[in-house]
Amino acid sequence: MQPKSGRRGGSSMLLLVLLATSCLLGSAKPSRGRPRTVRSVLLASDLAGRTEPEECKLSGHKDLHLLSPATACCYGKIVKNTSCCMDQQIAPGVTRKTLQRKGMHWNCTEENCWDTVQGPRGRDSFWLPEGATCSTPRTLYTHGGSWMYGSPDTDSYAQLGSRLAKVTGTVVMLTDYPLVPAGNYSSILQWAIDALQWLSLNGPFEGCDEEHGAKRVPLFVGGDSSGGGTTMSLVLTLAKRPQLLGQKLAGAFFFSPWTNLMCNTPEYYSNAFSKIQGSGKFQDDSKLTMYTGDILFQEVTPENADAFNGNAVDYLGGDFELQTDPIASPFFAQPADFAGSLPPLYFAVGASESILGDSVRVAQHAAQGGCDVILEVYHGMWHVFPMYSEGCGLGEPLWAGAYAINQTGLFVRHIHEQGRLPYKLKVEGPNGGPPESSILAKFWQPSVSKVPFFRYLYDPNVRHFSKVGELLPNRDATYSYKDIMKDLAKQSPWIVLPSLTGAAVTIFVMGFCLGGLTEFGGERAAPGARVAPRGLRARSTGAAALGV
């Protein structure tokens, strides 16, 4: 009877091994081994699948060191909804006024306008800092939106205008220019010229034109995205035709300006959006998902560039030749186009943008032409990131967005209060000689050419660059039945049920077959087991008889 008991014990042990193996396979548990250490330039957990406020609290990602919590929050939300998360709060201590300038109106209808704000348009908005007077410096700001969308009061431009008024100490005027297809490159640029001319002669209050008479207050211009492109076209136009304004601009600032209407800078490829799905998981069982590149424009490179290109051609009224015109498409302006009476320029652009090169190339050529230029590239940031300075709903600010706005304030205030940039670069050749005595001589014009004051900025809140998040640990030595059940419970029923069913069928068939084989082998082996001792005794007896 002992052989039968051994067969049952061996079969039971085998069935337990098969059950554990099947459960491990069915649970789709991540491969075990060394804990994964993922290193990438831009990483974020997949946080945006929920809509409740807790989605950005990162409770399971306490060690998310490579991105700050606010940046990670914005990544997760924007990837899921590229229209979300812009600033919502109006800056304190500023006031708003509106004005309809004579003759500056247009109608947005379904036939000539794709924006959501339909009906009569063209009313300007003004944001006044505390204590503003007729002598307060003034800024003309041109909003973005691909020249097809937006207004001074939508898409968070009211919030941005209020912040700019507060940090710069200037009266900020936002115009409601005619959007494509109601408007085009020529009419939008002319609208900006008319607005700047009006602003130079009129202040935020009635009677300002009479009060300061011939005295002109400092004038600044700014813009973002497509509005930044129009602002640069305005700056270059005034350099060619200074009589249009009658005074030199004090300064110009740009957030992610769109200046290349051929849409073929290398970053359309190198900064293309990608989603990396790892096989591991974070401690809270969320997927190990990472995003890199341009999170706002997520199409593959050809589609993304083609979409930009088609938008640009519509803006240019179908005139393909203007795509390389140095005024309409400032990316193609040469250093000589920036010579003359151009003001100091400030650029803030994200390092992950498809149109990063639109800022870098223009900044370089402007400095080479003799402009004072500050160029700041912000690590990990997306298109027009200063408009997300509140942190996408996390409750803490997005450092890069808030810092870029404050830097704009420093740039503007330093110019109108001190009469110069906050900082400049001095370029020397070998042994302290002139730059033209060095390798710079190829493009350096003596006593004219400069280089941008350039900074590549990291978020100081990110102190560690080795870990992405707290991944599931190596559990080879301690992976127990309880661990198996926990992992199994977290899987989808569509994974668990087929896995368990398959495991059960496999166990039954293998158990049946092994049981049969064991039974058959036992019956064949039993007679031999009984005979062998008798033969052994016979051989032993014979050996004794021979005297061995």
From TrEMBL:
<keyword id="KW-0378">Hydrolase</keyword>
<feature type="signal peptide">
    <location>
        <begin position="1"/>
        <end position="28"/>
    </location>
</feature>
<feature type="domain" description="Alpha/beta hydrolase fold-3">
    <location>
        <begin position="140"/>
        <end position="386"/>
    </location>
</feature>
<dbReference type="Pfam" id="PF07859">
    <property type="entry name" value="Abhydrolase_3"/>
</dbReference>
<dbReference type="InterPro" id="IPR013094">
    <property type="entry name" value="AB_hydrolase_3"/>
</dbReference>
<dbReference type="InterPro" id="IPR050300">
    <property type="entry name" value="GDXG_lipolytic_enzyme"/>
</dbReference>
<keyword id="KW-1133">Transmembrane helix</keyword>
<feature type="transmembrane region" description="Helical">
    <location>
        <begin position="494"/>
        <end position="517"/>
    </location>
</feature>
<keyword id="KW-0812">Transmembrane</keyword>
<protein>
    <recommendedName>
        <fullName>Alpha/beta hydrolase fold-3 domain-containing protein</fullName>
    </recommendedName>
</protein>
<keyword id="KW-0732">Signal</keyword>
<keyword id="KW-0472">Membrane</keyword>
<dbReference type="InterPro" id="IPR029058">
    <property type="entry name" value="AB_hydrolase_fold"/>
</dbReference>
